[in-house]
Amino acid sequence: MNFPIIHTNFWDALIAIPVIMILTQLIKIYFKIPNRFIPPIALIIGLLISIFISHRHNLVAGIFMGWFYGYAAIGNYAALKTSLIAYRNK
């Protein structure tokens, strides 16, 4: 079994993750979606960006990196929210 060669660059992660965070927040605000559905939406957006934009010539690489983009956006949002809550309670 050959593993795919995955090429990603710094700009993919620097652009994709904030875009995913912004889009999920806009979806949450405009469509009044409950908070429990936001992480799967971020994952789907990450997969879409990776499969159709970043890695459009390699489906396996697109799926693999899409998971990273989606979960990185979820983790960054959680870290930012926790930091802001801790700062406010200080």
Element-by-element helix/strand order: HHH
Helix content: over 70%
Query: Low-confidence segments, ≥5 residues, pLDDT <50?
Result: none
- Provide the residue-averaged pLDDT: 90
- The tally of beta strands, per DSSP, is 0
What does the largest sheet look like? none
- Broad shape: elongated
Beta-strand percentage? under 5%
- How far do the termini sit from each other? 53 Å
Number of helices: 3
Radius of gyration: 15 Å
Helix vs. strand class: mainly alpha
Give the secondary structure arrangement, pairings included.
Elements: H1 10-31, H2 38-54, H3 59-89
Helix pairs in contact: 1-2, 1-3, 2-3
Protein architecture, described:
This protein is an all-alpha fold and 90 residues long. Helices cover 78% and strands 0% of the residues. It has three helices and no strands. The protein has helices at 10-31, 38-54, 59-89. Helix 2 (38-54) packs across helix 3. The radius of gyration is 15 Å and the shape is elongated. It starts with 9 loop residues before the first helix and ends with a helix. The model has no long low-confidence stretch (mean pLDDT 90).
Keywords:
3 helices; elongated; 90 residues; mainly alpha
Give a brief description.
The chain is mainly alpha-helical and 90 residues long. Helix content is 78%, strand content 0%.
